[in-house]
Write a structure and sequence with these properties.
Number of helices: 10
Oligomer: single chain
Largest sheet: 8 strands, mixed
Structural class: alpha/beta
Radius of gyration: 23 Å
Order of helices and strands: HHHEEEHEHEEEEEHEEEHEEHEHEH
Length: 388
């Protein structure tokens, strides 16, 4: 058995305890006081130097016995603004929930910190460990990049990891090239003129305009985007009015555009603006367009993914295909700037239904925790030895 995996498995009780504390105390966005206090306490306990470089953004540094390159291992820590329905004994004690697995992510990188610190003599370079807030709201990676997470010392390569319930424990999914879509979040406020519902001609109906904008945006994908392109244009909110017999002054629409092809992304966004301007003029409403997010595609380097495969093979894991999907991840802020690799770690429990990520009923197989720890350690040490 790989020695790092053997050592990680010996840490199982500690990993489970750490994970369950984080799971029971979820926090959201970049407001993570309990989570970051726990991370800092553990890093200090393990003898690992750390800094908080942005709001709740922590960077730890482990310098090896020999000089060399710098590899970044990145994790996220934030939860979702939703209620948990897992029925677990250690379920959320707040109004938020770790239904995306970020509690496992943070736990595995903490475990990797402990083992890497114990194996400093084997490290030929520097391992930089990035504990990121605000992934669910696409806040954290951008803020930490702006704060210099890729510098001082300069990062030569980066690796990310995300658990999933599509695959079982011991399976790792990998894909070279674009593997997570860009995400352009937007908010459209339509400004009309309210009036009584019995006399609609006296007002300007923003709901009517919103309905036509919604349909036009869907027709844009159906008639102006090639059928083999992976594009998702979704409205998740359409809100207006407070009474059945009153035409309101405003209607609000919020949505996301997700793409893999940057030319398609630019084309669709341009056409959205053109349609919006024309339809608002046609239906006599004013409008305000706000950008909520601009997350780039997560693109993995073929060289880094092939290297990652070799490091995974040492652990005896089973490789599984990972098909590109229109989900988004702000690790794209990192992969856009440095050569990057990414793992999808299977965590589907064997004794419970495999609910998808973000389901309130989701559970994860905690026996995957040592695999994730060993994956991090083997990747960091392996990369620094191979790429001198």
């Amino acid at each position: 058995m790989n020695k790092y995996l053997e050592e990680a498995q010996a840490m199982y009780a500690e990993l489970v305890a750490n994970r369950r504390y984080l799971h029971a105390h979820p926090e959201i966005r970049d407001d993570l006081p309990l989570t970051t206090a726990f991370i800092k306490e553990k890093l200090t306990e393990y003898g690992v130097a750390w800094q908080e470089i942005s709001k709740c953004g922590i960077v730890a540094l482990i310098e090896g016995a020999k000089p060399g390159k710098v590899v970044l291992l990145r994790t996220d820590m934030d939860a979702l603004a939703m209620q948990e329905e897992s029925g677990l004994d250690f379920a959320s004690q707040t109004n938020y929930a770790h239904c995306c697995g970020h509690d496992l992510h943070a736990t595995m990188l903490l475990g990797a910190c402990k083992l890497l610190q114990q194996h400093r003599e084997e490290i030929e370079g520097t391992v930089k460990l990035m504990f990121q807030p605000g992934e669910e709201y696409f806040l954290g990676a951008k803020a930490m990049v702006a704060a210099g997470v890729l510098e001082n010392p300069h990062v030569d390569a980066a690796f990310g990891m995300h658990v999933n319930t599509t695959h079982k424990k011991g399976q790792v999914a990998m894909y070279s090239g674009p593997c997570y879509a860009s995400c352009d979040g937007f908010k459209i406020t339509l400004i009309g003129k309210g009036c009584h519902g019995s006399q609609p001609a006296l007002g300007v109906d923003p709901i009517n305009a919103a309905v036509h904008i919604y349909l036009a945006f869907q027709e844009l994908l159906a008639r102006e985007v090639q059928g083999n392109e992976m594009v998702a244009l979704t409205f998740g909110q359409l809100a207006a009015g407070h009474a059945a017999n009153i035409i309101p002054n405003e209607a609000v629409m919020q949505g996301t555009l997700r793409c893999y092809n940057m030319e398609t992304r630019a084309f669709v966004m341009q056409r959205m603006q053109e349609l919006l301007a024309c339809l608002c003029k046609a239906y006599r409403v004013d409008y305000k367009y706000e950008v909520l997010s601009e997350v780039p595609v997560v693109t993995t380097s073929s060289a880094m993914q092939e290297a990652a495969r070799r490091y995974c093979a040492d652990l005896g894991v089973e490789f599984m295909p990972l098909e590109p999907m229109c989900g988004s991840e702000d690790f794209g802020e990192i992969s856009e700037l440095v050569p990057s690799g990414h793992f999808g770690l299977g965590c589907c429990p064997s004794d419970y239904p495999c609910y998808p990520l973000h389901s309130p009923k989701i559970r994860f197989d905690e026996e995957a925790l040592p695999i994730g720890v060993a994956l991090w350690v083997n990747t960091a040490i392996g990369y620094l030895k191979e790429y001198k």
